[in-house]
Amino acid sequence: MTTTTALQAASAGAPFEVTQVPLRDLRDDDVLIDIKYAGICHSDIHQVREEWGKAIFPMVPGHEIAGVVAAVGPGVTRHKVGDRVGVGCMVDSCGECEFCKDGQEQFCAGGAVMTYNGRGYDGEPTRGGYARQIAVTERFVCSIPEGIDLDVAAPLLCAGITTWSPIRRWGVGPGSKVAVIGLGGLGHMGVKFAAALGADVTVLSRSDAKAQDSLALGASAHVATADPKAVKALRGTFDFILNTVSADLDMNLYLGALKPLGVLANVGLPPSNFSIRPGFVVSGSKVVAGSNIGGIAATQEMLDFCAANGVGASIETISASEVDAAYERVVAGDVRYRFVIDTATLEAPL
Ligand code: NAP
Ligand code: ZN
To answer: What is the residue with the minimal CA distance to atom 22 of ligand 1?
Structure first.
């Protein structure tokens, strides 16, 4: 087994260290990727800090991976050396259950293998994209079309597919009145996608600090939600609300902003519970939905849409030594709108 240079957290909440981590020998269907950029998702922070429960340490996070194929196993047919590729939240699944066959690998009956903080079917812990290289089964490697730079493509592999998936499922398009709660990594992609698909988009953000950005990203309105009266004033306005907030939220307040038959799709994953008064969904026959990333075919469809429509993430590129500080800024809601690690700054440790 060889190794690769990576950013690793030794234990929950520990600062990152540059170190060498194992890199598996290439399997028959493996693609070896030289990682160029890795996005920082709020889920990385939840997991490194064990906010979702016990995690596997040491941990190399990162499930927004963009790079170039460095080598392929003998059985690989989908990718070749030099191809621009991406890897998201999953690196394996059984491939045989009804969900895998339907292109919904995230619901694999045998359990999809997460890119990091998971275990492969061989029992070995998985390690993610804050690294120079990764080996991934070709089925979980997407093509990044020409026309999207690798740095702005990296966040599409999680923030992109996670917002694309519910927006497509619930039929957002021309004529839809859409609201996105929380203008962070996921939220800003939700705004870009809904606007690109022809919807009229309102951003619901805590303050007015990001108001100009909302309009530049494609929204027609920005509402500061710190005063609940501003949300109450939107009563019965939206067909579809996408909640991307990483913290507790007053769902009953936002349900009021839906039209009858409207859908509030939640992708945020705070560790707390939501409280929903039944009358607020019964009245107006509203839907509260969840949505979990998206399958590999949908991820490729989303990447192709981005290339065709000039959509990419809005990013701040950082070096490996800036990741701890970047985490603090993400938690403070101070990211515009995704941090992306330039993995060339991961120097091999002495
Ligand atoms: P992010 O970049 O930190 O964005 C979250 C946004 O929520 C912030 O920018 C902020 O927007 C708002 N926010 C933060 N704290 C808040 C608070 N206390 N009250 C109200 N609003 C607050 O995070 P992200 O990477 O987009 O991820 C968002 C959530 O989605 C995380 O919980 C993450 O784990 C989850 N996630 C889920 C999936 C899935 O498959 N469902 C996939 C990836 C991530 P404003 O400043 O505009 O208010
Ligand atoms: Zn993510």
So the answer is: 245
* Ligand lying closest to the C-alpha of residue 161: 1
Does the C-beta of 286 come closer than 6 Å to ligand 1? no
Amino acid identity of residue 105, one-letter, is E
Q: Is this structure's pTM higher than 0.85?
A: yes
Q: With bands split at pLDDT 50, 70 and 90, how would you rate the model's confidence at 304?
A: very high
Q: Label residues 38-65 b or e (16+ Cβ within 10 Å = b).
A: bbbbbbbbbbbbbbeeebeeebbbbbbb
224 CB within 6 A, ligand 1: no
Q: What is the mean pLDDT of residues 289-299?
A: 98
Q: What is the DSSP letter of 129?
A: S
Distance between CA atoms of residues 133 and 54, nearest Å: 26
CA atoms within 13 A on the CB side of 213: 21
Superfamily of domain 2-158+314-345: Medium-chain alcohol dehydrogenases, catalytic domain (3.90.180.10)
Domain ranges of the chain: 2-158+314-345, 160-290
Contacts of 87 (CB under 8 A, 6+ apart): 33, 63, 65, 115, 129, 134, 136, 140, 141, 142, 157
CB 151 within 8 A of CB 51: no
Amino acid letter, 259: K
CATH topology (fold) of 160-290: Rossmann fold (3.40.50)
Tell me if domain 2-158+314-345 and domain 160-290 are identical in fold: no
The model's pLDDT over 63-95, given as tens digits with 9 standing for 90+, comes to: 999 999 999 999 999 999 999 999 999 999 999
**Residue 1 pLDDT grade (very low, low, confident, very high; cuts 50, 70, 90):** confident
Closest residue by Cα to residue 294 from 130, 120, 102: 102
- Determine whether the shortest distance from the Cβ of 163 to ligand 1 is under 6 A: no
